[in-house]
Amino acid sequence: MLRVGIAGIGWVAEEHINAYRNNPHMQVAAMCGTNMPRLQARAKNLRLDDASLYDDFYKMVENPDIDIISICTPHHLHEEQAIAAAKAGKHILLEKPIALSEQGLFKVKEAVLASGVKSVTGFVLRWNPYVQMVERLMNNDLIGRPFLAEVTYYQGLGDWYRGFDWIRRKEFGGSVLLAAGCHAVDVLLLAVGALPTEVSAYAVKTDCGLEYPSTVAAIVKFDNGAIGRVTCSLDSKIPYAFHLHMLGTKGALRDNRLYADLFQGQTDEIVIPTLLPGSADVHHFPFQGEIDHLVDCILHDKESFVSIPKACTSHMICLAADRSVESGRPVGIGLDGLQQ
């Protein structure tokens, strides 16, 4: 039986707890928050009667009976908490983003590699049925070599989100890509299947309460010659929208509509019935698949396809886009140490 400590008491932490409870190899052993009365009330609400409660993250990490740390805290805390968990020999589920700076990103990566622990970055859309379908299409070469891929991520972020007071601030939330659009960047990398070499980006700041630009459009060059575009906005007046369009040497994909050379005589796009990403409400996110995957990686000693070292690539795109917005120039990305 593996034992997990949960860092954070918000709605994502709750979904982690529910998923761990549904895995037969897991026990929720501890929970951590900064305010003990609130933590106690939350633990009671979640029926964590047997869990140890901590108002000090580092004391929870020192507990030798805990095998896994799930980090569901505000973004600016991720770097130090992930490093501490890795140094303590704990396996890690780290909600995105890994860190808010390139220096922090590589500090976390090195700590994970040095410790040998298993890790999963919280790119939970990897377990969405549509995203899994895209991966199978690519693995079976139905689209061929992609030369253009575009991902859009639109939602309106406001007071409905419980963490809006902190995520709106640049020092805590980071940027529109680090706060949310990194999900789109991760799916772009999955679709193209190559490493990024350069990013050019432009942004717009609107009056929606965010300290950083609310909307960004980034063009990414890849080492296989493909180009990608990510457009993300947290000031969208339409409901949550997540779209992927791809052009390849053997076919094209528009969300779940496929046109491919394999289907000779095809006169229109084939509509593939599947469940597309359709809500920013985390209750709809496939956390069960994510948690089951982490447990499987631990039990069978294998690296996740969204481990922290591998997820550094998507974060490098986000950080390069932010630097491009600030400088008004393209930003190159060195390939050394990047993983697909």
Features:
340 residues, alpha/beta, Rossmann fold, nine-stranded mixed sheet, six-stranded parallel sheet
Q: How do the helices and strands line up, and which of them pair or pack?
A:
Blueprint: E1 2-7, H1 11-21, E2 26-32, H2 36-45, E3 52-54, H3 57-61, E4 68-71, H4 78-87, E5 91-94, H5 102-115, E6 119-121, H6 129-139, E7 146-154, H7 164-167, H8 170-173, H9 176-192, E8 196-204, E9 215-222, E10 227-233, E11 241-248, E12 251-254, E13 257-260, E14 270-271, H10 287-299, H11 308-327, E15 331-332
Parallel strand pairs: 1-2, 1-4, 2-3, 4-5, 5-6, 7-10
Antiparallel strand pairs: 7-11, 8-9, 8-15, 9-10, 11-12, 12-13, 13-14
InterPro entries: Gfo/Idh/MocA-like_OxRdtase_N, Gfo/Idh/MocA_oxidrdct_glycsds, GFO_IDH_MocA-like_dom, NAD(P)-bd_dom_sf
Keywords: Oxidoreductase
Domain GFO/IDH/MocA-like oxidoreductase: 132-254
Structure overview:
The chain has 340 residues and is α/β, with parallel strands linked by helices. The relative contact order is 0.16. Helix 1 (11-21) packs across helix 10 (287-299) and helix 9 (176-192) packs across helix 11. The longest helix is centred in the last third of the chain and has 20 residues, at 308-327. 35% of the residues lie in helices and 24% in strands. The protein is built from 11 helices and 15 strands. The chain has 2 domains: 2-124 and 291-307, Rossmann fold (3-Layer(aba) Sandwich); 129-280 and 310-332, 2-Layer Sandwich (Dihydrodipicolinate Reductase, domain 2). It has a 9-stranded mixed beta sheet, covered by helices on one side. It is globular, with a radius of gyration of 20 Å. GO terms for molecular function: nucleotide binding; oxidoreductase activity. Residues 2-118 form the Gfo/Idh/MocA-like oxidoreductase N-terminal domain. It holds the Pfam family GFO_IDH_MocA. It comes from Paenibacillus baekrokdamisoli. Residues 132-254 form the GFO/IDH/MocA-like oxidoreductase domain.
